[in-house]
Specification:
- By secondary structure, the protein is α+β, with helices and mostly antiparallel strands.
- It has three domains: 2-101, Rossmann fold (3-Layer(aba) Sandwich), CATH 3.40.50; 130-196, Dna Ligase, domain 1, CATH 3.30.1490.20; 202-343, 2-Layer Sandwich (D-amino Acid Aminotransferase, Chain A, domain 1).
- It is built from twelve helices and 13 strands.
- It is globular and about 60 Å long.
- The two termini are 32 Å apart.
Length: 357
């Protein structure tokens, strides 16, 4: 089987700069050369799979894809320009009739827009924090969100990998809120999403499979108490990329999460319903948080989850997979198998279980 590995690869100088704290997040969503090589090797570990890396840039990928000699493309393309950037290459693949793994362009476009995602989930009765999107500073948040009160979280409406979510995104005053709205407008040239802060526990949940074969992997909890004293209880860019590093990893995650059977069932039900409503395929990671009443609320949906191979880098989807007994290779080959099954492409694979971490 000839598999194209379609991905955006971080420039080498950006990868090197990750050895020191920085808030330069331009390429945060893209994968490092080491991650792409780890994915290639994982897929190629199957004796029937031959993998070719395709850099997801228009001047490098389009002519190569036009040859149409891939049996399936393993899609990791994040894109670079536009609010629907994650949908661009999947749309091209559909136009060319090339099978690919992961969610379709509509799902990818919607999920990157946090406001539209919350609107759709609310329509289907899935709990989300009260929210509003704005393009400029506001005179009164209570007029926009009746019944809601400080604190709030302010974040870009269309970014991933915690881009634009800073420690300062947790706001307790109108002045602080408006500073964040202006920062997002100036730095990201897009609207700001303002959502009511949920004070409860936070979890991130990996899903593997499609339709009635979709299953939840062991739940990951974020331990905010492990962050520095000056950090707010928010999984910010600093928490993800500055405070917690491969050379000095924090014990910031617990997997499997220590939850009651009742709470586990509630989280899984909300996550799988979200996965279904947004028509996610093959895999995704969904972030949830408990409100003051202990209800499970969806924060974000990530149809292209991060998959850093090094356990010290605390990448949540591989962490959940390891807790389920899946090696890195088996995790990725399971995604490939799910994609092949959707297209009716023959692919023999049964995951090899490793000891649970």
């Amino acid at each position: 089987m000839h598999v194209g590995l379609l991905a955006n690869i971080k420039p080498r100088q950006v990868v090197d700069e990750r050895t020191r704290p920085t808030l330069d997040d331009l390429y945060s969503e893209w994968d490092s050369p080491e991650t792409i090589e780890a994915v290639r090797a994982a897929l190629a570990s199957h004796p029937d799979v031959e993998v070719e890396i395709i850099e997801a840039l228009p001047d490098r990928a389009i002519d190569r894809l036009l040859i149409k000699d891939f049996d399936i493309v393993f899609n990791l393309a994040e894109g670079f320009v536009g609010a629907a950037r994650e949908a661009q290459f999947p749309a091209l693949l559909e136009m060319l009739g090339i099978p690919y793994t992961g969610s379709g362009p509509l799902t990818l476009a919607i999920a990157l827009d946090k406001g539209r995602t919350k609107e759709i989930l609310s329509y289907h009765g899935i709990p989300v924090a009260r929210f509003v999107t704005v393009n400029s500073p506001v005179d009164s948040i209570r007029a926009l969100l009746p019944g809601a009160d400080f604190p709030f979280i302010v974040k870009p409406v269309s970014e991933g990998s915690s881009k634009g979510i800073r420690n300062s995104s947790f706001v307790t005053s109108l002045d602080a809120m408006n500073r964040e709205i202006e920062r997002i407008a100036n730095e990201y040239h897009q609207a700001a999403l303002i959502e009511e802060y949920l004070p409860g526990r936070e979890f991130t949940v990996a899903v593997l499979g499609t339709g009635n074969k979709a299953r939840v992997l062991p739940i990951v909890e974020i331990n905010f108490g492990e962050l520095p004293p000056e950090a707010n209880n928010v999984y910010s860019y600093e928490a993800k990329w500055v405070y917690d590093t491969a050379d000095k990893p924090l014990n910031i995650f617990t997997c499997p999460a220590d939850v009651s059977a009742k709470l586990r069932d509630e989280i899984e039900a909300v996550v799988l319903r979200t996965y279904e409503v947004l028509e996610c395929r093959d895999w995704a990671r969904i972030d949830v948080r408990l409100d003051a009443r202990g209800r499970v609320n969806v924060i974000e949906v990530n149809p292209l989850p991060g998959i850093l191979p090094n356990p010290e880098e605390n990448s949540c989807y591989p962490k959940a997979a390891r807790a389920a007994g899946l090696t890195y290779e088996s995790m990725l080959l399971s995604v490939l198998k799910s994609g092949c099954e959707r297209y009716g492409i023959p692919f023999q694979f049964e995951p090899k279980l490793s000891p649970k971490s």
